[in-house]
Amino acid sequence: MDQWFSVPTASITTFTLNMVLGLLLSVAVAWYYRSYGHVLGNRRKLAALMPVLTLTTGIVISVVKSSLALSLGLVGALSIVRFRTAIKEPEELLFLFISIAIGLGAGAEQRDIIIIGVALLLAYLSVRTVFARRTRDHNLYLNIAVTDEGAALFTRVNDCLLEHVDVLDFRRLDSRDGTMQLTYFIECDDPQVVNDLVDQLKHSFPVVEISFLQQEQVLGG
Fold first, then answer.
1. pLDDT tens for each residue of 43-80
2. Are 43 and 130 part of one and the same domain?
3. What is the model's pLDDT at position 218?
């Protein structure tokens, strides 16, 4: 029974090696997330916290792994932790979980496992990113604000758009203060077609504003 509550002294050299390895791996994961993540929020801030999360997890695991008493104390301490803001982006949760996994492996001295695991994860994510870029659809949200000229303006704008794009999906119309705002979802493979479309819209209608937004930059897109 006494050995369950004893706290063996860990090797400082081993602990330092584990923490340095965890730090290097978490920095690599953070760099990938900052460079290639798709979250709309500030990825740089979250990426800067990933190594800290990894080291903190590694320190906790290093302290409690050899003592049942400390393990039970950790469970009690974590039971009172509450987070005010929920993580809504699955990608954020994924990379945070990877950072925690690195810390768990480093604290448990499973160096080979975390090295191979992180290498495989980053390799898979890199391949997926390359193929996603090659097969990415040129889907755009088009927002047009024009001076409301009365009857048939909406129909004329639709006819103009259909001359340039293959797929046109009307999403929203707002009319206020003499301005009509139209939102469409379009598919366009040639950037030059977009330029020609903008030129014709400006030439044919009293355009106030035109904006395009890629589908992957829209929440839920």
1. 788 889 999 999 998 888 887 876 655 565 565 555 55
2. yes
3. 41
- Enclosing domain of residue 86: 2-134
Show the 3-state SS of the chain: CHHHCCCCCCCHHHHHHHHHHHHHHHHHHHHHHHHHCCCCCCHHHHHHHHHHHHHHHHHHHHHHCCCHHHHHHHHHHHCCCCCCCCCCCHHHHHHHHHHHHHHHHHHCCCHHHHHHHHHHHHHHHHHHHHHHHHCCCCEEEEEEEEECCCCCHHHHHHHHHHCCCCEEEEEEEEEECCEEEEEEEEECCCHHHHHHHHHHHHHHCCEEEEEEEEHHHCCCC
Question: What digits encode the pLDDT tens for the residues 176-220?
Answer: 778 888 888 887 766 677 788 888 888 888 887 888 776 554 433
- Whole-model pTM: value is 0.57
Residues 151 and 105 in one domain: no
